[in-house]
Structure to design on (267 residues):
């Protein structure tokens, strides 16, 4: 019965957020706005390159595929982080933790909201990619699901670290929600190989699961080799980063509860 109680508590928190979105179409529109806008910008750039033929034509698929995958990582991180911020903005965080809700159940609910945001944001972008650019990333086969899954996991790890930082430093750290993932874009090598980076930055890039995901994408689209190796490395790194960020979250959560700042967040 303990497991059933945990599921009920997770569902209750998820349902609270779903009720917010159901009554607010601007929130729903925001899900798809970023992925669709980025797809249009890079998609038309890719079409321009494809019209020139030759070597440039092969870059078009990499640009569109890269932006679709990277936007899923952004959506994953935002879905987790913004759902947490909703609890702060509504001054509900303290109420949650005088209830039977446990921190791990909060994290589970935030992961569910993250997945829902990925689905809601990426489906319009995927449909537009097919309609406007005749690009279907699923032609790569089941590997696409693994690419998306790895990037979603990376989004959770980043979001967990951001949430931990907010617990420790308060509302002044909220801006990190919209900046950290963008700051990781150059090292994620979305549109170019890791070898294109300056030598001192390559080891840093290889610590990110996203760099291996995009190396795998390029291998699948161009050479057809070593993408399973890259995905395996990405998965291992994701597990390591998630474990590390979970420890950081637990430490900062306990510190916030001990110092009384947990209830004061959002005041």
């Amino acid at each position: 019965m303990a497991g059933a109680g945990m599921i009920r508590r997770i569902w209750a928190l998820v349902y609270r957020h779903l009720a917010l979105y159901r009554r607010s179409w601007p929130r729903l529109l925001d899900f798809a706005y970023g992925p669709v806008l980025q797809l249009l910008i890079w998609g038309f750039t890719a079409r321009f390159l494809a019209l020139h033929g030759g070597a440039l034509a092969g870059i078009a698929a990499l640009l569109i595929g890269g932006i679709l995958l990277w936007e899923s990582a952004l959506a994953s991180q935002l879905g987790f982080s913004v759902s947490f911020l909703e609890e702060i903005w509504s001054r509900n965080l303290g109420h949650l933790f005088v209830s039977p809700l446990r921190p791990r159940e909060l994290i589970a609910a935030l992961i569910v909201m993250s997945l829902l945001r990925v689905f809601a944001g990426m489906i319009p972008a995927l449909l537009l990619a097919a309609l406007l650019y005749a690009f279907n990333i699923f032609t790569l086969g089941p590997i696409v699901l693994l690419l998306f899954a790895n990037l979603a996991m990376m989004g959770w790890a980043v979001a967990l670290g951001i949430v931990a930082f907010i617990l420790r430093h308060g509302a002044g750290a909220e801006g990190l929600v919209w900046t950290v993932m963008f700051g990781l874009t150059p090292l994620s090598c979305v549109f170019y190989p890791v070898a294109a980076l300056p030598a001192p930055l390559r080891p840093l890039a290889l610590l990110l699961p996203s760099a291996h995901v995009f190396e795998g994408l390029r291998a699948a689209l161009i050479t057809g080799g070593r993408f399973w190796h890259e995905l395996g490395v990405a998965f291992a790194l994701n597990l390591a980063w998630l474990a590390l960020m979970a420890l950081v979250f637990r430490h900062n959560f306990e510190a916030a509860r001990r110092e009384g700042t947990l209830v004061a967040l959002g005041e």
About this structure: The first helix runs from residue 2 to 22. The CA atoms of residues 124 and 163 lie 28 Å apart. The chain has a mean pLDDT of 87. The two ends are 36 Å apart (CA to CA).
